[in-house]
Amino acid sequence: MSFAAAPPLSGTVRVPGDKSISHRALMLSALAVGTSRITGLLEGEDVLATAAAMRAMGAVIARSPEGLWTVNGVGVGGLLQPEAALDMGNSGTSTRLLMGLVASHPVTATFTGDASLTRRPMARVIDPLMQMGADITAAPGGRLPLMVRGACPAVPIRYRLPVASAQVKSALLLAGLNTPGITHVEEPVPTRDHSERMLKGFGADLTVEVENGVRHIRLHGEAELSPQTIEVPGDPSSAAFPVVAALIVPGSSIRVENVGINPTRSGLYEVLRMMGADLAFADQRVVGGEPVADIVVRHSALTGIEVPPEIAPAMIDEYPVLAIAAAMAAGRTVMRGIEELRVKESDRIAAMVAGLRAIGVAVEELPDGMIVEGRGGDPLPGGATIASLLDHRIAMSFAVAGLASRAPVTIDDMSPVATSFPDFVTLLDRLGAGQGR
Ligand code: S3P
């Protein structure tokens, strides 16, 4: 599919539900006793993989024609033995969080996934879950396919996160739910805190204390969770694509409604403002324990900056699209301290460097990041085909680049977009982007 220079983008749109919150909403609802109700759930492939796994382990999950999801949970400790392997598709979040859940239940589960997921490192969850007593056998290098035999009872541990990872933190907290005693996770670098917020919302006994800059999260197990009604806000990581599109297509002015702006997720928006973006959070409110706003953004002349590496965990999924904004900025943008990008759905540093070069942007690859030479607002040359590498965010980033390019940018395979943002192209078209195609 090709994306070509767009006329000014305008209009008001909503992006799909937050992927991180959607996974957690299904998992915690499946562990509560009774019926939870979820609206705004992301109906993308990753979240549907989580739903299928929770069904396979006993939860009863239904969707009304209006999009209301109801989940009848089995209770903490009540997960059933799945009859077949759990196919996680492309979803690292499903895999790592569910490994945590299974680790403290008397069940054995096999996890499989696609070619991208099979390459991703799982040792970061295997190691601490084995310390809790789970028995895990994985393919060489700690990869999928792998089998988790849960420990019952599991042993509570105190664990300092060696990588800044919300997935590892969440896997341990989920394992802690059915573990007697206190599971204690130390987080030297804060990561997204949706699990902590939602666990408290479901009634778990969880405390967070900050000592000398380290977050100490303590969860009392054998928790009892009570069913909830959850409204999932729009995903700030998905909103990033129309927002950057509006910033780089001259004359644009758009509003993206109902977007989560949790400070552990909103780093991109801070960085764009530092680059000179005309971008505001309007009508700020709290929905279901999460801060939410409408993002109002206009085309802006951007300036390259050194992105502070400490902001990385709050925008870890947004570097690909930031690199597109950087390509349109005046001067260079330096992104460092993001070696984690090499183990996402693709090696996102390598993918962005190769793709930017292919569309005529000068970029230097660093072991832990990249330096993009901005074109000062001049259109990008474009005129290349980009391999999306089973990575939704690579596909969407270069689609956005196409909207500000002289010659169209072709994405070889847009199907990965269905993991997190099934209506991405329709939404761009609603803003007017399709007129150039
Ligand atoms: C996620 C955490 C992040 C992020 C991923 C979703 C989550 O991964 O990249 O898209 O929902 O917890 P890491 O925990 O590996 O940084």
Automatic annotation (TrEMBL):
GO terms (BP aspect): amino acid biosynthetic process; aromatic amino acid family biosynthetic process; chorismate biosynthetic process
Recorded hits in Pfam families, A to Z, give:
EPSP_synthase
Location of the Enolpyruvate transferase domain = 8-426
Provide the residue positions that the database annotates as binding 3-phosphoshikimate. Answer: 19-20, 24, 165, 167, 317, 344
What is this protein identified as? 3-phosphoshikimate 1-carboxyvinyltransferase
Q: Tell me if Protein biosynthesis is a UniProt keyword of this record.
A: no
Q: Which residues does the entry assign to the active site, renumbered to this chain?
A: 317
The protein's organism comes out as Sphingomonas changnyeongensis
